Amino acid sequence: MSQNPPSLRPDLAPKARISAPRREGQPMIGMVSLGCPKALVDSERILTRLRAEGYAISPDYTGADAVIVNTCGFLDSAKAESLDAIGEALKENGRVIVTGCLGAEPDYIREHHPKILAVTGPHQYEQVLDAVHLAVPPSPDPFIDLLPASGVTLTPRHYSYLKISEGCNHKCKFCIIPDMRGRLASRPAHAVMREAEKLVDAGVRELLVISQDTSAYGVDIKHAIDKGHRAHITDLARDLGSLGAWIRLHYVYPYPHVRDLIPLMAEGLILPYLDIPFQHAHPDVLKRMARPAAAAKTLDEIAAWRNVCPDITLRSTFIVGYPGETEAEFQTLLDWLDEAQLDRVGCFQYENVNGARSNALPDHVADEVKQDRWNRFMEKAQAISEAKLEAKVGTTIQVIVDEVDEEGATCRTKADAPEIDGNLFIDEGFDGLSPGDMVAVEVEEAGEYDLWGRLV
Predict the structure, then answer these.
(1) 331-to-93, 107, 328, 347, 380 alpha-carbon distances in Å
(2) What does pLDDT average to over the chain?
(3) Which long-range contacts (CB under 8 A, 24 or more apart) does 297-305 make?
(4) Same domain assignment for residues 107 and 194
């Protein structure tokens, strides 16, 4: 067991988990998946296709005939991490295919790593498969190579990401994701529901709904109704809630219609959890970001949400040190956080990203000032988290078990998403527990980000 680190980047997906035996002579492809949960879903789709063609899958370079590196290009630091991963794969294996968000810049990648076999952009599944076929021809055995009905998943069996759309229609100045992944492209609601049903039938007990802008789901297809399901986030949430699994919503912009989701949380149809990227609180900073500048109104919305569903957990991410951010603007953010009392908070220090319009803004903030503001922001967020968790001591809550080892069971409450939020630990009487179990626990102790409890 390990405690949740307070500096964990909020954009990262859980580490990919692959475990399947390899038959003799079966070609094997390694997969290194970097970046956010949306990229992890892309990796799952690629591997599902490869498994269907008879390839074995490895979570690293060991024994692989070639390696796919699914890259992240969200921040310059993420690009550097992706380049390092490509370099390591070349060193350890030598036969590397690059895909993902950074793949939208093939010249940039080849400038650093000219020996890679191929480069494809994000969600270009056919091109990735073509590159694999050239590097390692398939050799399927239809009597042995069986594909699970739910496809290949890179998360533990009991939870799974459910991507409902690609792309984004926002034009935030600090973000290049619309340039890499395009405009909003929603999946038909019946297709989302069919995938969700297969996952639940296969034993998934928690579905994490993801997209670049979950609130905008269905706007591009005019909220079409197909096979009894309407492509609107409220309708989709209600339909998903009928499956009996935990339904957790991520990347929800606070549009007015979000308030229609809150009664579904109060009824228990979906988890009382909203992941909303507020980014900042000062209207001038938000304007420079090209984001809606209505922080005061947002506080009213938060109060209204809590009035309907008092148990709601609010998670968000923020950027400190954005170009032009003054000390007074930063103090406004701290004061806003004091008033908003968000439950789960992540924070980035602003970075220039090649191609982002924010690079050209004046008055960039010095690195040491960004670091100081990040420290002060996280100190306040940590104090809020600690107080909120302390208030849970003595209560009985439902948790889902993620992992069990000789030290105890690592669990999550309804208020905790995998990897990015906290954990609840059971270190006595856990012998009969298994991953995916849902049990009642009395909270006995609280830390800054995590809880400890006992089975009841």
Answers:
(1) 49, 42, 5, 15, 12
(2) 89
(3) 298/254, 298/340, 299/336, 299/339, 299/340, 301/254, 301/258, 301/259, 302/340, 304/259, 304/262, 305/259, 305/262, 305/274
(4) no
Q: Which of residues 102, 135, 168 is at a domain's end?
A: 135
Q: What is the pLDDT of residues 424-437, one digit of tens each?
A: 999 999 999 999 99
Coil, helix or strand for 57?
strand
Residue 89 pLDDT exceeds 50: yes
Q: Is 59 within the bounds of a domain?
A: yes
On the CB side of 310, CA atoms within 13 Å amount to 0
In the beta sheet, which residues pair with residue 440? Answer: 398
State how far Cα 348 lies from the chain centre: 15
Domain that holds residue 164: 159-390
Positive/negative CA dihedral, 382, 249, 36, 339: negative
Distance CA 76, CA 35 (A): 12
Residue 109 has pLDDT above 90, yes or no: yes
d(CA 347, CA 81): 19
Q: Are strands 344-349 and 313-320 parallel, antiparallel or unpaired?
A: parallel
- Of 51, 12, 25, 347, give the one whose Cα is nearest residue 155: 12
What CA–CA distance (Å, rounded) separates 277 from 345?
10
Feature table: binding site for [4Fe-4S] cluster: 36, 72, 101, 168, 172, 175
CB 164 within 8 A of CB 217: yes
Residues annotated in the binding site, as ranges?
A: 36, 72, 101, 168, 172, 175
Dist. CA 240–CA 44, nearest whole Å: 21
Strand 225-226 versus strand 229-230 pairing type: antiparallel
Residue at 145 is within a domain = no
CA triplet 185, 120, 93: central angle to 5 degrees? 135
